[in-house]
Amino acid sequence: MNEHYLHFLWRTKRIPFHQLRLSNGADFQLVSTGTYNAFESGPDFSCAQIIIDGLQWVGNVEIHLRSSDWYAHGHHHDPAYQNVILHVVLIHDKEVLVKGQILPTLELKSIIDFAHLQHHKPQKRSAIPCASLVRAQKNLPFFSIAATTLPQRLARKSETKGPALGTSEWFYTLLARSFGAQVNAVPFELITLQVPWTQLLEMDSQQRFIAIIQASGLYPALSNQDSMLENSALEPFWWKRKGQHAPAQPEKRLVQFAALVSYLPDALSFVHLDSPRLVKYFSELLQTAFSQYGILHHIKKSFLLNTILINAVAPLLYHHKRHTTALALVQSLGPEDNHITRLFKDMGVSARNAGESQMLIELHTQFCTAKKCLNCAVGTQILG
After folding, report:
1. Which of 43, 59, 227, 375 is the most buried (most CB within 10 A)?
2. E-strand spans in 71-152?
3. Are both 235 and 371 inside the same structural domain?
4. Same domain, yes or no, for 270 and 345?
5. How far apart are the first and last CA of the chain?
6. Are 105 and 96 in contact (CB under 8 A)?
7. By residue range, what is the domain housing residue 46?
8. Containing H/E element for 35?
9. 349 half-sphere exposure, CB direction, 13 A CA radius
């Protein structure tokens, strides 16, 4: 028995959740297991959703063999674990306190199938269930079959606007998450809560730049001097660096984001531009903003420009019902290179533009990882 086996049980939902109650007797329901943290430091699963006695919780889940491992591993000294909402353990041998409150605990010892454990051998399987079948089919019109996933992805991303956000504030949040990418999207979004759009509108460009830097908490000396924040700066544990190349380190991305925000127009008049002029508009905006703060040598501009256009501008266009322009925009950009597109490349499917790489990402996140092959256009085509 090891923690990785328990991770496997939680991740694959091989647990009779309907039979379980928490260690204190409270009713427990699972909504979402969350995102598995296989590489970064911090809790094992993030953004999990559970219901305890009718109240829904969203946060992190930590898994141990024994609940006392929480203290043995020093999590009580690490602020990154203060947002854990559930402790999943094989054996509950000690109550764990977080912020002075007993951490809800789910004990698994009564439901472990030891016959399965004995024969369980972790295997390296393809993250794409149909990989071998796709390889076997020559001349498969993969992107023609998957064409509907691109508008589906843009529509889904365009519907994430919170009910309390105006369109400009929502775009500001999309921009922030673009600079954070997957690893640091959350702390970048938190900056937009620390320095809301309405507050930025009352500042000049220099004040905007300083306020963003202060909100990050990455420069404590600056944050403590003449702070322009209504809220406290972020704690350092929010920022992740493991596996990040030098250009993607949070300090560099932060300065770039602060520079762009300092020149971001108050109105979204650019939404009426066509695809080529949108590329030109944001290219010139980045050039102006970065030149002002002397950071041109820190960036690979084309990569950053494409990231902003794909993840912030295109969803905004789709939200404004400019569907054709949004599709044309992403299809005019170079393909993305990440671990998902490389998985497909290994099975012989290579994206030729950002529109096609977005299709691959949508297929992987919405169908492959959830094993929804019968709902996937490619899956149903192959299975006939």
Report:
1. 43
2. 84-91, 97-98, 101-102, 105-107
3. yes
4. yes
5. 41
6. yes
7. 3-119
8. strand 35-36
9. 30
3-state DSSP assignment of residue 155: helix
CA distance to 5, 186, 326, per residue, from 306 (Å): 39, 20, 13
- The count of domains in the chain is 2
Rounded Cα distance between 333 and 303, Å, is 10
- Confidence (pTM): 0.74
Six token digits for residue 114: 């030891």
Please report, as a single letter, which amino acid is at residue 190.
L
Greatest Cα pair distance, the chain, in angstroms, is: 66
61 φ, ψ (degrees, to nearest 5):
-125, 135
At position 8, the amino acid (one-letter code) is F
Residue with token string 């997957």: 182
Q: List per-residue pLDDT tens for the chain, 384 residues long.
A: 788 889 988 988 888 888 889 999 999 999 888 888 876 678 899 888 999 999 999 889 999 999 999 999 999 988 889 889 999 999 999 999 998 999 999 999 988 877 777 676 655 556 788 888 888 888 889 999 999 999 999 999 998 766 567 899 999 999 999 999 888 888 999 999 999 999 999 999 999 999 999 999 888 777 556 666 767 788 887 888 776 777 788 999 999 999 999 999 988 989 999 999 999 999 999 999 999 888 765 555 588 899 999 999 999 999 999 999 999 999 999 999 988 999 999 999 999 999 999 999 999 989 988 788 999 999 999 887
**Domain identity same for 55 and 182:** no
Return the structure tokens found at 93.
């041998």
Q: Which two tokens stand for residue 72?
A: 């043995």
Taking the C-alpha atoms of residue 360 and residue 348, their distance in angstroms, rounded to an integer, is: 12
For 42, the token pair is 């911090």
H-run or E-run covering 30: strand 28-32
